[in-house]
Design goal:
19 helices, cell inner membrane, 2 domains, 466 residues, Cl-channel_core, Clc chloride channel, H(+)/Cl(-) exchange transporter ClcA, transport, mainly alpha, cell membrane
Length: 466
């Protein structure tokens, strides 16, 4: 062996060891931070999963009461009104009395906390959001549980840092973001979407670093493991599994994305308009606020009996849509009706999210679009269910402006991995059209509105004192 070959072999033998040592010397991730992110993920997984079970228990108990005790003593519609109104009253009262920041989705509050401009009173938010959400969602209102689980997850992240007396601002920030990711992962059995939601949607607030990214991943994965341990590993939505669409139909997905981009801007404006309308009506007076919320909850109790498709978060409705149970005309009517009911429930300030209602709206319009396209272009191999799934991601992208999160969320929720290309096309089209129209992401709008109203209230305090 020549001297040159000996030097070469010596270098190759040393290189892996030196590379590993160099990597380890640069890896300064504090192990306690990762362990705390694991704790945050596990706790958020338990809270998020059992929050779903609690809402389901309340809904089933409400139905059982209607069938037995109360339903036999009162007219069915009156019993439904009283039960749902009482459940909604619990949610509205807890929010107004103990934690106003728990109203609505709660995601803007976490984003504000990550920016250091909103407090995280976890000792109030956790019980109020959990039990208040049980009442509001259990009453049959058009609300989702993903917003509450994200806010509760973030609150758990802050709780852990307070318990361990963490003073480092970056660590507190990382665990807050980890809790938010874990909350979404536990809500929808979607760990990748939970990670990407923080990285993409919360990108203006999220502080990118090796530590923060690892903490978010660990929390999201551990929360999802808890969810799967309790609920099983099946997808959240049971629906047909589709193959990749034909290439000559892809342009239709771009058209659908453009329509959702336009609608996304309108939808976001309707949300803030409905919130402002309710505030002007009750003027933050507790009696008016509770009376309004109870009447809304009671009304949805009646609707549960006669028009259940217009009530609830909408996740349970999605399989029925994709199974072809409805005609295009009825789907469009249902789409319009659920827009109204979504604005009423979310705009009123009830403790519930808007993710699930948006996914249901996307499915409704997407499937109707597919049916209409099938009639207009009979020569094309069109499967309406594909457009329903693409619509779910497109509306999310058009309103939240997080297309990658929307794509991952829909794929993980439905297990339709072959539809990634049409999902990308539709979501990209929605984002481009929404940006062209100048619309803002929904959660940014809600956070700005919260900060504006808070500033106005602070300015009015001295006047009231005089």
């Amino acid at each position: 062996m020549t001297k040159r070959e000996q030097i070469k072999q010596s270098f190759l033998a040393k290189m892996p060891k030196d590379a590993i040592n160099q990597f380890l010397s640069k890896d300064t991730t504090p192990i306690p931070v990762l362990l705390m992110s694991l704790v945050v993920g596990v706790l958020a997984g338990f809270v998020g999963t059992y929050f779903e079970h609690a809402v389901q228990f309340v809904s089933e108990t409400r139905t059982q009461w209607l069938k037995t005790e109360i339903g036999s003593a009162l007219p069915l519609w009156l019993a439904a009104f009283i039960i749902s109104g009482a459940l909604a009253f619990v949610g509205y009262y807890l929010v107004h009395r103990f934690a106003p920041e728990a109203a609505g989705s709660g995601i803007p509050e976490i984003e504000g906390a990550m920016d250091g401009i909103r407090p995280v009173r976890w000792w109030r938010v956790l019980p109020v959001k959990f039990f208040g959400g049980m009442g509001a969602l259990g009453s049959g209102m058009v609300l989702g549980r993903e917003g509450p689980t994200v806010q509760m997850g973030g609150a758990i992240g802050r709780m852990v840092t307070d318990i361990f007396r963490i003073k480092n601002d970056d660590t507190r920030h990382s665990l807050l973001a980890s809790g938010a990711a874990a909350g979404l992962a536990a809500a929808f059995n979607a760990p990748l979407a939970g990670i990407m939601f923080v990285v993409e949607e919360m990108r203006p607030q999220f502080r990118y670093s090796i530590i923060s990214i690892r903490a978010v991943i660990i929390a999201s994965v551990s929360a999802n493991i808890v969810f799967r341990y309790i609920n099983g590993q099946s997808a959240v939505i049971t629906m047909p599994q589709y193959q990749s669409p034909e290439l000559n139909t892809l342009w239709l997905f771009l058209v659908l994305g453009g329509l959702f981009g336009i609608f996304g801007v309108i939808f976001n404006r309707l949300v803030t308009f409905s919130q402002d309308l309710f505030v002007r009506f009750h003027n933050n007076d507790r009696k008016r606020y509770l009376l309004t919320g109870s009447l809304i909850g009671g009304s949805f109790g009646i609707m549960l009996l006669y028009m259940p498709e217009l009530t609830g978060g909408g996740i349970a409705l999605i399989p029925n849509i994709t199974n072809g149970d409805y005609a295009a005309g009825f789907l469009l009517l249902l789409f319009a009706g659920r827009i109204v009911t979504t604005m009423i429930c979310f705009g009123s300030g009830a403790p519930g999210g808007i993710f699930a209602p948006m996914l249901a709206l996307g499915t409704l319009f997407g499937y109707a679009f597919g049916l209409i396209a099938q009639q207009m272009f009979p020569e094309l191999p069109i499967t309406p269910g594909m457009f329903a799934i693409a619509g779910m991601g497109a509306l999310f992208a058009g309103t939240v402006r997080a297309p990658i999160t929307g794509i991952l969320l829909v794929i993980e929720m439905t297990n339709n991995y072959y539809l990634i290309l049409p999902l990308i096309i539709t979501s990209l089209g929605a984002v481009i059209f929404a940006q062209m129209l100048g619309g803002q992401p929904i959660y940014s709008q809600l956070l700005h509105r919260t900060l504006k109203n808070e500033k106005l209230r602070q300015e009015d305090l001295p006047r009231d004192g005089n």
